[in-house]
Protein backbone atom coordinates (compact mmCIF):
# COMPACT_ATOMS: atom_id res chain seq x y z
CA UNK A 1 0.00 0.00 0.00
CA UNK A 2 1.44 3.36 -1.05
CA UNK A 3 0.97 6.67 0.68
CA UNK A 4 2.28 10.14 0.03
CA UNK A 5 3.54 12.93 2.23
CA UNK A 6 4.59 16.46 1.44
CA UNK A 7 8.34 16.43 0.91
CA UNK A 8 10.52 19.40 1.71
CA UNK A 9 9.33 22.67 3.24
CA UNK A 10 5.63 23.50 3.45
CA UNK A 11 3.69 26.71 3.99
CA UNK A 12 0.33 25.24 4.95
CA UNK A 13 -0.74 23.00 7.81
CA UNK A 14 -1.54 20.26 8.49
CA UNK A 15 1.13 18.66 6.33
CA UNK A 16 1.29 14.92 6.96
CA UNK A 17 4.49 13.24 8.18
CA UNK A 18 4.76 9.43 8.22
CA UNK A 19 5.67 7.38 11.26
CA UNK A 20 5.05 8.02 14.93
CA UNK A 21 7.76 10.59 15.62
CA UNK A 22 8.56 12.46 12.39
CA UNK A 23 7.67 16.14 12.63
CA UNK A 24 8.31 19.48 11.00
CA UNK A 25 10.43 22.20 12.54
CA UNK A 26 9.43 25.84 12.34
CA UNK A 27 11.87 27.70 10.11
CA UNK A 28 13.02 31.24 10.77
CA UNK A 29 11.65 32.61 7.52
CA UNK A 30 8.15 32.90 9.01
CA UNK A 31 5.19 30.64 8.42
CA UNK A 32 7.35 28.01 6.80
CA UNK A 33 7.83 24.53 8.20
CA UNK A 34 10.70 22.25 7.32
CA UNK A 35 10.78 18.76 5.89
CA UNK A 36 9.74 15.74 7.94
CA UNK A 37 12.47 14.64 10.29
CA UNK A 38 13.46 14.35 13.92
CA UNK A 39 12.31 17.00 16.37
CA UNK A 40 14.91 18.91 18.40
CA UNK A 41 15.61 17.90 21.98
CA UNK A 42 12.80 18.96 24.30
CA UNK A 43 10.22 18.90 21.50
CA UNK A 44 7.60 16.37 20.47
CA UNK A 45 5.49 15.97 17.34
CA UNK A 46 1.96 17.30 17.57
CA UNK A 47 -0.24 14.63 16.01
CA UNK A 48 -2.79 17.26 14.96
CA UNK A 49 -0.58 19.30 12.63
CA UNK A 50 2.69 17.26 12.63
CA UNK A 51 4.72 20.24 13.89
CA UNK A 52 7.42 19.85 16.53
CA UNK A 53 6.13 21.54 19.69
CA UNK A 54 7.88 22.06 23.05
CA UNK A 55 7.27 19.54 25.84
CA UNK A 56 5.66 21.74 28.50
CA UNK A 57 3.42 19.43 30.51
CA UNK A 58 4.28 18.64 34.12
CA UNK A 59 5.74 15.27 35.01
CA UNK A 60 3.32 12.76 36.48
CA UNK A 61 3.76 11.33 39.98
CA UNK A 62 4.86 8.05 38.41
CA UNK A 63 7.60 9.89 36.48
CA UNK A 64 8.92 11.49 39.67
CA UNK A 65 8.86 8.11 41.40
CA UNK A 66 10.82 6.64 38.51
CA UNK A 67 13.45 9.38 38.79
CA UNK A 68 13.55 8.78 42.54
CA UNK A 69 14.10 5.07 41.93
CA UNK A 70 17.00 5.78 39.58
CA UNK A 71 18.46 8.10 42.23
CA UNK A 72 18.05 5.47 44.96
CA UNK A 73 20.02 2.86 43.02
CA UNK A 74 23.46 4.47 43.54
CA UNK A 75 22.67 5.09 47.22
CA UNK A 76 21.74 1.44 47.74
CA UNK A 77 24.80 0.24 45.85
CA UNK A 78 27.03 2.55 47.88
CA UNK A 79 25.52 1.30 51.14
CA UNK A 80 25.75 -2.32 50.02
CA UNK A 81 29.42 -1.88 49.17
CA UNK A 82 30.10 -0.21 52.51
CA UNK A 83 28.15 -2.87 54.43
CA UNK A 84 29.82 -5.87 52.80
CA UNK A 85 33.43 -4.68 52.57
CA UNK A 86 34.07 -1.77 54.87
CA UNK A 87 32.03 -2.42 58.03
CA UNK A 88 35.03 -2.55 60.35
CA UNK A 89 35.46 0.94 61.74
CA UNK A 90 32.48 2.94 62.96
CA UNK A 91 34.19 6.20 62.02
CA UNK A 92 34.91 5.16 58.45
CA UNK A 93 31.50 3.55 57.99
CA UNK A 94 29.56 6.57 59.23
CA UNK A 95 31.67 8.93 57.14
CA UNK A 96 31.10 6.93 53.97
CA UNK A 97 27.37 6.60 54.61
CA UNK A 98 27.04 10.36 55.08
CA UNK A 99 29.13 10.99 51.96
CA UNK A 100 26.99 8.62 49.89
CA UNK A 101 23.72 10.26 50.89
CA UNK A 102 25.00 13.84 50.54
CA UNK A 103 26.61 13.14 47.15
CA UNK A 104 23.45 11.71 45.63
CA UNK A 105 21.23 14.39 47.19
CA UNK A 106 23.43 17.21 45.86
CA UNK A 107 23.61 15.56 42.43
CA UNK A 108 19.82 15.34 42.36
CA UNK A 109 19.38 19.00 43.32
CA UNK A 110 21.95 20.20 40.78
CA UNK A 111 20.43 18.09 38.01
CA UNK A 112 16.86 19.22 38.70
CA UNK A 113 17.86 22.88 38.89
CA UNK A 114 19.54 22.62 35.50
CA UNK A 115 16.48 21.07 33.84
CA UNK A 116 13.23 22.50 32.60
CA UNK A 117 10.04 20.56 33.43
CA UNK A 118 8.64 18.53 30.57
CA UNK A 119 6.05 15.92 29.78
CA UNK A 120 5.94 12.18 29.99
CA UNK A 121 6.15 10.31 26.69
CA UNK A 122 5.19 6.76 25.95
CA UNK A 123 7.96 5.25 23.87
CA UNK A 124 11.59 4.94 24.90
CA UNK A 125 12.86 3.49 21.63
CA UNK A 126 11.84 5.74 18.69
CA UNK A 127 14.83 4.51 16.71
CA UNK A 128 12.81 1.36 15.95
CA UNK A 129 9.97 3.42 14.47
CA UNK A 130 11.75 5.24 11.66
CA UNK A 131 9.23 5.15 8.78
CA UNK A 132 10.04 3.96 5.27
CA UNK A 133 7.44 5.51 2.95
CA UNK A 134 6.64 3.18 0.06
CA UNK A 135 9.74 1.17 1.04
CA UNK A 136 11.89 3.64 -0.89
CA UNK A 137 13.66 5.74 1.73
CA UNK A 138 14.00 5.76 5.49
CA UNK A 139 13.19 8.92 7.42
CA UNK A 140 15.41 9.09 10.49
CA UNK A 141 13.16 10.60 13.15
CA UNK A 142 14.62 9.23 16.38
CA UNK A 143 15.03 11.70 19.23
CA UNK A 144 14.40 11.84 22.97
CA UNK A 145 10.66 11.23 22.85
CA UNK A 146 10.56 10.67 26.61
CA UNK A 147 12.26 13.98 27.38
CA UNK A 148 13.60 14.54 30.01
CA UNK A 149 13.44 11.07 31.53
CA UNK A 150 16.28 9.72 29.40
CA UNK A 151 19.10 12.25 29.53
CA UNK A 152 18.32 13.63 32.98
CA UNK A 153 19.26 10.29 34.55
CA UNK A 154 22.55 10.15 32.63
CA UNK A 155 23.41 13.70 33.69
CA UNK A 156 22.52 12.82 37.28
CA UNK A 157 24.86 9.82 37.27
CA UNK A 158 27.68 11.92 35.80
CA UNK A 159 27.22 14.64 38.45
CA UNK A 160 26.96 12.06 41.25
CA UNK A 161 30.14 10.37 40.06
CA UNK A 162 32.01 13.67 40.01
CA UNK A 163 30.72 14.67 43.45
CA UNK A 164 31.73 11.26 44.79
CA UNK A 165 35.34 11.85 43.78
CA UNK A 166 35.38 15.38 45.23
CA UNK A 167 33.61 14.70 48.53
CA UNK A 168 35.42 11.49 49.33
CA UNK A 169 38.75 13.10 48.62
CA UNK A 170 37.80 15.86 51.07
CA UNK A 171 36.57 13.28 53.61
CA UNK A 172 39.90 11.47 53.35
CA UNK A 173 42.00 14.63 53.65
CA UNK A 174 39.98 16.36 56.39
CA UNK A 175 38.54 13.48 58.43
CA UNK A 176 40.95 10.67 57.57
CA UNK A 177 38.18 8.40 56.26
CA UNK A 178 39.37 5.45 54.17
CA UNK A 179 37.68 5.89 50.81
CA UNK A 180 39.70 3.97 48.22
CA UNK A 181 37.55 0.82 48.04
CA UNK A 182 34.29 2.75 48.04
CA UNK A 183 35.54 4.96 45.18
CA UNK A 184 36.49 1.91 43.14
CA UNK A 185 33.01 0.47 43.71
CA UNK A 186 31.38 3.69 42.52
CA UNK A 187 33.58 3.87 39.45
CA UNK A 188 32.37 0.39 38.55
CA UNK A 189 28.64 0.63 39.15
CA UNK A 190 27.98 4.14 37.79
CA UNK A 191 28.92 3.11 34.21
CA UNK A 192 26.92 -0.10 34.66
CA UNK A 193 23.86 1.88 35.79
CA UNK A 194 24.24 4.26 32.85
CA UNK A 195 24.53 1.39 30.38
CA UNK A 196 21.49 -0.34 31.89
CA UNK A 197 19.52 2.89 31.61
CA UNK A 198 20.59 3.41 28.00
CA UNK A 199 19.57 -0.07 26.89
CA UNK A 200 16.77 -1.04 29.30
CA UNK A 201 15.30 2.33 30.26
CA UNK A 202 11.85 1.51 28.91
CA UNK A 203 11.64 -1.80 30.76
CA UNK A 204 12.91 -0.25 33.99
CA UNK A 205 10.40 2.59 33.69
CA UNK A 206 7.46 0.23 33.35
CA UNK A 207 8.46 -2.43 35.88
CA UNK A 208 10.56 -0.68 38.55
CA UNK A 209 7.74 -0.75 41.19
CA UNK A 210 7.51 -4.54 41.02
CA UNK A 211 11.30 -4.92 40.96
CA UNK A 212 11.51 -2.71 44.05
CA UNK A 213 9.01 -4.77 46.04
CA UNK A 214 10.36 -8.17 44.99
CA UNK A 215 14.01 -7.30 45.65
CA UNK A 216 13.20 -5.66 48.99
CA UNK A 217 11.32 -8.77 50.17
CA UNK A 218 14.08 -11.13 49.01
CA UNK A 219 16.81 -8.95 50.51
CA UNK A 220 14.91 -8.72 53.80
CA UNK A 221 14.62 -12.51 54.01
CA UNK A 222 18.28 -12.93 53.09
CA UNK A 223 19.33 -10.53 55.84
CA UNK A 224 17.34 -12.48 58.44
CA UNK A 225 18.66 -15.83 57.19
CA UNK A 226 22.29 -14.76 57.74
CA UNK A 227 21.80 -14.38 61.49
CA UNK A 228 23.11 -17.16 63.70
CA UNK A 229 20.22 -17.40 66.15
CA UNK A 230 17.16 -18.43 64.18
CA UNK A 231 14.47 -18.16 66.82
CA UNK A 232 11.66 -15.66 67.23
CA UNK A 233 13.00 -13.93 70.34
CA UNK A 234 16.56 -13.53 69.06
CA UNK A 235 15.48 -12.30 65.64
CA UNK A 236 13.20 -9.70 67.18
CA UNK A 237 15.70 -8.44 69.77
CA UNK A 238 18.58 -8.34 67.27
CA UNK A 239 16.41 -6.30 64.93
CA UNK A 240 15.70 -3.71 67.62
CA UNK A 241 18.97 -3.53 69.57
CA UNK A 242 21.52 -3.74 66.75
CA UNK A 243 21.66 -0.40 64.90
CA UNK A 244 22.96 -2.10 61.76
CA UNK A 245 20.09 -4.60 61.61
CA UNK A 246 17.57 -1.89 62.44
CA UNK A 247 18.92 0.32 59.66
CA UNK A 248 18.74 -2.51 57.13
CA UNK A 249 15.15 -3.34 58.09
CA UNK A 250 14.10 0.31 57.85
CA UNK A 251 15.68 0.52 54.39
CA UNK A 252 13.71 -2.55 53.31
CA UNK A 253 10.50 -1.08 54.69
CA UNK A 254 11.16 2.18 52.87
CA UNK A 255 11.70 0.35 49.57
CA UNK A 256 8.60 -1.78 50.08
CA UNK A 257 6.50 1.33 50.74
CA UNK A 258 8.10 3.09 47.78
CA UNK A 259 7.12 0.21 45.52
CA UNK A 260 3.53 0.21 46.79
CA UNK A 261 3.19 3.96 46.19
CA UNK A 262 4.69 3.58 42.71
CA UNK A 263 2.17 0.88 41.79
CA UNK A 264 -0.89 2.63 43.19
CA UNK A 265 0.27 6.21 42.43
CA UNK A 266 -2.01 7.16 45.34
CA UNK A 267 -4.96 7.42 42.96
CA UNK A 268 -7.28 6.33 45.76
CA UNK A 269 -5.48 8.11 48.58
CA UNK A 270 -7.10 6.60 51.68
CA UNK A 271 -7.22 3.07 50.28
CA UNK A 272 -3.60 3.25 49.21
CA UNK A 273 -2.53 4.51 52.63
CA UNK A 274 -4.03 1.37 54.14
CA UNK A 275 -1.88 -0.69 51.77
CA UNK A 276 1.20 0.86 53.37
CA UNK A 277 0.33 -1.09 56.52
CA UNK A 278 1.62 -4.15 54.62
CA UNK A 279 5.17 -2.75 54.67
CA UNK A 280 6.32 -4.62 57.85
CA UNK A 281 4.56 -7.84 56.79
CA UNK A 282 7.54 -9.64 55.12
CA UNK A 283 9.79 -9.08 58.15
CA UNK A 284 7.10 -10.11 60.63
CA UNK A 285 6.18 -13.12 58.51
CA UNK A 286 9.78 -14.34 58.53
CA UNK A 287 10.18 -13.85 62.28
CA UNK A 288 6.95 -15.57 63.30
CA UNK A 289 7.30 -18.48 60.87
CA UNK A 290 11.01 -19.12 61.38
CA UNK A 291 10.28 -22.24 63.46
CA UNK A 292 8.55 -23.76 60.45
CA UNK A 293 11.02 -22.64 57.79
CA UNK A 294 14.47 -23.03 59.39
CA UNK A 295 15.97 -26.16 57.73
CA UNK A 296 17.89 -27.13 60.88
CA UNK A 297 14.74 -27.17 62.99
CA UNK A 298 12.68 -28.91 60.34
CA UNK A 299 15.24 -31.72 60.00
CA UNK A 300 15.57 -32.00 63.77
CA UNK A 301 11.86 -32.62 64.09
UniProtKB/TrEMBL annotation:
One of its GO terms (biological process) is ERAD pathway. The keyword Magnesium does not apply. Keywords: Membrane, Transmembrane, Transmembrane helix. Pfam families: JAMP (PF05571). The chain crosses the membrane at residues 64-82, 94-115, 149-171, 183-201, 207-224, 245-261, 273-292. GO terms for molecular function: ubiquitin protein ligase binding. GO terms for cellular component: membrane. InterPro entries: JAMP (IPR008485). The keyword Acyltransferase does not apply. This is JNK1/MAPK8-associated membrane protein. It comes from Allacma fusca.
